[in-house]
Structure formats: structure tokens, C-alpha cells
Amino acid sequence: MEAASSLPPSRRRRLLLAGLAAVLPLLFAVRRVAIIPDAAPSRAPAAPRHHDEQQKQHERCRNDDGFTLPAPVVEALLHYAASPETPQLTRAELSLAARALTTSRAGPRNLLVFGLGRDTALWAALNHGGRTVFLEEDASWIDAARAAHPPGLGLEAYHVAYDTVLADAGALLRLRDDPACVAQPDLVAAIAASCGLVPRGLPAVFGEVEWDVILVDAPTGYDPTRPGRMGAIYAAGMAARARRAGATTDVLMHDVDRPVEDMFSRAFLCEAYAVEEVGKLRRFVVPSHRGDAVPPFCPPDEDAASVSI
Known about the structure:
- This protein is of the alpha/beta class.
- It has 12 helices and 9 strands.
- It has helices at about 10-30, 50-55, 70-80, 90-100, 120-125, 140-150, 170-175, 180, 185-190, 205-210, 230-240, 260-270, and strands at about 60, 70, 110-115, 130-135, 155-160, 215, 250-255, 275-280, 280-285.
- The strands form 2 sheets. The chain has a 7-stranded mixed β-sheet, with helices on both faces. It has a two-stranded antiparallel sheet with strand order 1-2.
- The N and C termini lie far apart (about 55 Å).
């Protein structure tokens, strides 16, 4: 077997993350003490640190053989080993997400997560060296998370105020046929065209960064008065399409067992871009729509969504 120090850096990183993806779910299974029902989601806190501070984090855990573990990985292992809290995703779903983060592209990634939950430390560890940003609808939850999470794990989180309600999902789904939403190059143009699906409260960082992986696991959508994920799904797809020519983005859609998440992801992330599905998690690989030959919103062999909610 090759010594770890003789492997190229990119391969060492992939092996490390693959190992973490295998070990953490097993740890979660051992530590799991309760199953939280979808109707009353409970989320666990995450820790304070801005991206600039994360970039300065160079501490490592080294054994006698010279093997090193990045500090975020160590912090995540210690956090979950000492806590009864476990992520909402199952082991199989977490493995799918880990594949999206560790395959296709080498080097650190930009990871955007809609939602701040019990898996915050996991995403920071899996994406160590990259930038991980969380968008959360509950400002008080962000404050509580920053106060309670281990200080060794960085947390870059922003509050988003959504202006949709789940009860309007049927009407919003019909915007799949509206040029104001599906004939625009980016969210700025969609806002100018008065697309009703654009979340108006997104922070500036959303449009300033090219996201390699986006996980849509929020906002809440378990009753008709909640915001629902319609706008988040649309925004994720538009962010992927607006990237530089030739780029692709992995968009992970959670809770696809629910009608809104299922139908909106198929309509606005496109069925043809779906590459994998495990449990309640569906993975799309959405290509950039920049360049000389701009493709249609979805591949031409797909009919516009005609389903109703």
C-alpha cells in the first residue's frame, strides 16, 4: 500500500473525505437516540467563525506516523462523538452528498446550504479548505447556533426572509411557462422581469460566489403557512445556470418525497439533469447556460411542468 505522504495532495484529500464520509454516518448511527418527525423539524446549533477566519485555520492533528487531520474534521468527530445530536439525513443520503463534494472536481469547493441544522458541523468537515455558507430563515436560530456550537468549527450564516407561502405552490409552479422566470440569464434579470419565484431576501454573497455544490434543505415547508422551498429551488437552479461557461453545479434536493420538493425540483432543476437519488435526497448536475450557444431552460425533450399541487 502506498504511504499517505507519497500520494498527490488531491488524492490524499479525496481519500480523507471518503473515509470521513464512511466513519461519520456510522458514528451517527451509534449515537442516534431519537427520530425527529418531518412535521416538527428540530435543528442543532453551529459555531461562530467567518470565512476569512476559516481561511487562516492551519491547525492539524498529527500522530507518530506523520498523518494529519484537518482541524474541522477533528472538531466534527469530537462534536458528534460527545453529542446525542445527529444529522437529519440518513447514512445513505449523507454518502450521496459526500460523493457530490468529493468527485468530479479537485480542490476546495464553494458549498451553499439552504438551512442551518444538526448537520452543520458535517458540511464544514466534508468541505474543509473550501467555503461553506448557510442561509437560514430564522434569525434567532442563527444567534442560538453561534452561541452554542464548538468554537473550533467555523460558521458563516446569513438570514433570509422569504416572501412565499406553501399554499401558493400551485400558482408558482405554473411560472415554469413564464419567460420572466425561465428566459432570464440570472436572478438579477429575473427580478427585473418581475419573476414571482425569486427570493427577495438573499444576501449579497449568494450572487458574488460561484457555487460548486448547493444543498436545498430549507426553508420550512411542513404546513401551508410556511414559506416552502419553491423560491430556494428556483434560486439554486438559476445560480447554477449563471456560472461561467463550461461549469457545472451539483444541486442536492432533500425531502423529495414531498410533492412540492419533488415537482419543483423536476420542473426548475430539470429531470434530464437528475443523476442520482437515494432515500429522500435527489442529486442534479446543472450545467452553465453561459456561452455562445445558450441552451433552453431544460433540455428540449422535456415538456414544461404540467402537474398541479
